[in-house]
Amino acid sequence: MKKVKVRLGSNSYEIHIGSGILMHTGRQLKENGFTGSLVIITNPIVKGLYGDALKQNLTREDFRVIILQVPDGEEQKSLEVAGRLYNELTNFYAERTTPILALGGGVIGDLAGFVAATYLRGVPLIQIPTTLLAQADSSIGGKVAIDHGQLKNKIGVFYQPKLVITDIDTLRTLDTKTLIDGLAEVIKCAVIRDKELFTYIEGNLDKIKSLDDRALEEIVFRSAKIKAEIVEKDEKDLGLRAILNYGHTVGHAIESASDFKVEHAEAVTIGMLAAAKISNKMGILDKNELLRLKSLIERAGLPTRIPKLKVEKIIQAIKHDKKILRGKIRFVLLKSIGSVFITDEVSLSLVEQILVDWNEET
Ligand code: NAD
Ligand code: GLY
Asked: Please, what CATH class does the domain formed by 2-175 belong to?
């Protein structure tokens, strides 16, 4: 098992990454000083795969456990569902000291994290991520949120977990698409901060896709380390943490211009390439680096062609974000793989030209 420490003073915690560690959760929680009652929040899919077995493990370790379920899907990240969970926690007589275990992907992590942060003004949160996206990114750093109307992830708080238990064996039951979508986040981590990780993914892509233990542990561990390092430096997202949004300026615009028909991972992948193309056109990034990124994205099975959308609609969506960001549109640009910087000096006409020319050139 590998450990990553997130150093945030009294809110510090460890991320445990390994194979088969889910079934040691009870012992681990005891070592962290927890006793008594526990609440697992999950969905029916993950409950069937891991929740029931986890409950048995915890019961054997003398915990009193209930599993609260929400249906699968992003739409569950709502105030209404949080409200229902508050009622169920009350019925279980959950107290300030009763930990909530968020067992699932990013949806469960965000929702259960939001509930943990707000119920009784905060109960201990344990993240147990079971998708690659959640293991590499969303379970770390304390951003917990729900969606509200058009506001995606905008109603929330920073609330750090007490512990993150990342069992890479859980990735074995993911469908290929969810695994590859998560890989987009891992590639993003490599691009912004870790050229060696990028090279590792290039050299071990087949192993990653065929769920080789060591390869999965390596990419999750290195991504977790990158995320932890960034969060330590900028917990409240006031500066450096924005680099985690590499690819998101154009990515968000594509999602919103398509009325969210283009999925997040696909949109962000195009956004990552767009940011690299902008960097290249501005003379900051070498063309070979751009081609390397494009080639890895293609080999990973992620899209490199822009979805059929009117370029004006994408530009309109970027302008809409610009209004929200007080007239500044922020891009994360690439100097080389592993090194990025934040700027508001990108002209929208350049972005437009890149999008118009997209499918004709490399
Ligand atoms: P998800 O949670 O919807 O999970 C994807 C699918 O995989 C679901 O159907 C889920 O039931 C299923 N699943 C989960 N674990 C499984 C397993 N081990 N085996 C089989 N199936 C499994 O999606 P996601 O991609 O994990 O997360 C997306 C969410 O994460 C979004 O809501 C996004 O806003 C959020 N997010 C949050 C942060 C953050 O910092 N808090 C960062 C990035 C994304
Ligand atoms: N996933 C973006 C962040 O945690 O800041």
From this structure: alpha beta
Q: Where in the chain is the domain with CATH 3.40.50.1970?
A: 2-175
Name the class of domain 246-361.
Answer: mainly alpha
Dist. CA 115 → ligand 1 center (Å)? 17
CATH 1.20.1090.10 domain span(s) along the chain:
246-361
pLDDT along the chain (362 residues), means of 10: 98 98 98 97 98 98 98 97 98 97 98 98 98 98 95 94 98 97 98 98 98 97 98 97 96 92 94 98 98 98 89 90 69 98 93 88 55
Residue 108, CA distances (Å) to 61, 82, 189, 233 in order: 24, 11, 22, 26
Ligand 2 contacts CB of residue 185 (under 6 A)? no
- Mutation test residue for ligand 2: of 245, 272, 340, the one with most atoms within 8 Å of CB: 245
Could you say which ligand is closest to the alpha carbon of residue 189?
Answer: 2
pTM greater than 0.85? yes
Which SS3 state, helix, strand or coil, does residue 332 take?
Answer: strand
**Beta carbon of 39 within 6 Å of any ligand 2 atom:** no
